[in-house]
Design goal:
The chain is of the alpha/beta class. The chain has 2 domains: 138 residues, Response regulator (Rossmann fold), CATH 3.40.50; 177 residues, Hypothetical protein af1432. Helices cover 52% and strands 9% of the residues. The protein contains 14 helices and 7 strands. The strands form 2 sheets. A 5-stranded parallel β-sheet has the order 2-1-3-6-7, sandwiched between helices. α6 packs across α14 and α13 runs antiparallel to α14. About 4% of the residues have low confidence.
């Protein structure tokens, strides 16, 4: 069995000597290697062929590797492609954050250090061939790991969307929640990784409902106490279902606790304010608001103004964090329509 599985690689560098040496070294290890000197060529290759990793020099004849990296990370299906920046040793000056300085110098107009657009690796040259091969193998392992995550997430999201499709009157609820939660999280100062978790929670928060009998979810009459207990198991079931995907670890508390209330009257753990994870507390605000506007078997939807009024009344009762409710009302709702439109959904009622 091979220690390192071969991959399809693209190397971009204006230094033809390095390209030849790198391609020869990696080809001997079974990798398929394409090389080019220009960023423009690299973009054409990336759009035309499938690669497992990209290695690009910081300085290119027609631009910078940093900007090529940013373009790749923002380019749809290429966003998960591992990217290594090839940096010559003389470019790495001693400083508290030499990487940040390099990126600012070579991509002043690209938000490379934020939004997940930075390279995954920095390879400083000169480098011994043996070490170079090991670094590339690590990138390919990263690629396989990301593909596994993407596949697992895709399967879970398909389950969640399948649940939503069973009731076409509730269609769009998950995507709206992801969009609204990200907007509220940004307004509250959450970082990019928390915003990603909030977006994923939009799709996955109710995935545990897949294990609840459909007859209970569609029941028009009031649920019996035992039936309520069964339905209220769905956050725990959802957490268990997603627990095996490491990338979803930050999302698990949202899935489990998005039905908690600040006064301790929620479920499943009856947590109070201060005990509820901040992302779950935030998510519950957008979830309850959108749920009020979404058709349910046991009640008609509320118009937007009435849903907001009810949300504020319930925050006065101690159900929801008042500051988050007001942040949602004043900073999210005024801009929500445009963002929902971009996401391909609309409000269930006006």
């Amino acid at each position: 069995m091979q220690a390192h599985r071969p991959g399809d690689l693209l190397i971009v560098d204006g230094n033809s000597q390095f390209l030849t040496l790198a391609a020869t070294t990696l080809s001997r290890r079974g990798h398929s290697v394409r090389v080019c000197a220009y960023a423009s060529e690299a973009r054409e290759h990336l759009e035309q062929y499938s690669f497992d990793a990209l290695l690009c020099a910081l300085e290119l004849p027609d631009g910078s590797g940093a900007e090529l990296c940013a373009w790749t990370k923002m380019h749809g299906d290429l966003a998960t492609l591992p990217v290594a920046m090839l940096v010559d040793a003389e470019r790495v000056a001693p400083s508290s954050d030499p990487v940040a300085e390099i990126m600012r110098d070579y991509a002043p107009n690209a938000p490379v250090l934020g939004g997940g657009l930075a390279p995954d690796e920095f390879i400083v040259r000169p480098i011994r061939p043996e070490e170079f091969v090991v670094r590339v193998a690590a990138m390919l392992k990263m690629r396989r790991y990301r593909d596994e995550i993407t596949n697992a997430l895709g399967a879970l999201i398909s389950i969640a969307e399948g649940i939503e499709e069973q009731d076409k009157r509730a269609r769009g609820h998950c995507r709206r929640l992801g969009t609204l939660a990200v907007l509220l999280g940004a307004a509250a100062g959450f970082d990019e990784y928390q915003l990603l978790s909030l977006e994923r929670a939009g799709y996955l928060h109710d995935i545990g409902r897949a294990q609840i009998p459909g007859a209970l979810l569609e029941k028009v009459q009031p649920l019996t106490p035992r039936e309520q207990e069964i339905v209220r198991e769905h956050p725990i079931l959802g957490e268990r279902l997603c627990r095996g995907v490491m990338a979803l670890t930050p999302v698990l508390p949202i899935i489990r606790h998005h039905h908690e209330r600040a006064d301790g009257s929620g479920y499943p753990d009856k947590l109070k304010e201060g005990q509820i994870p901040p992302m779950a507390s935030l998510f519950s605000v957008v979830d309850v608001f959108d749920s009020m506007m979404t058709w349910r078997p046991y009640r008609p939807p509320l118009p937007r103004w009435q849903a907001l009024e009810t949300l504020r009344q319930e925050s006065d009762k101690g159900y929801w964090n008042r500051e988050l409710v007001e942040l949602f009302a004043t900073q999210v709702l005024p801009i929500a329509d445009d963002h929902l439109r971009v996401s391909g959904v609309s409000w269930p009622v006006s």
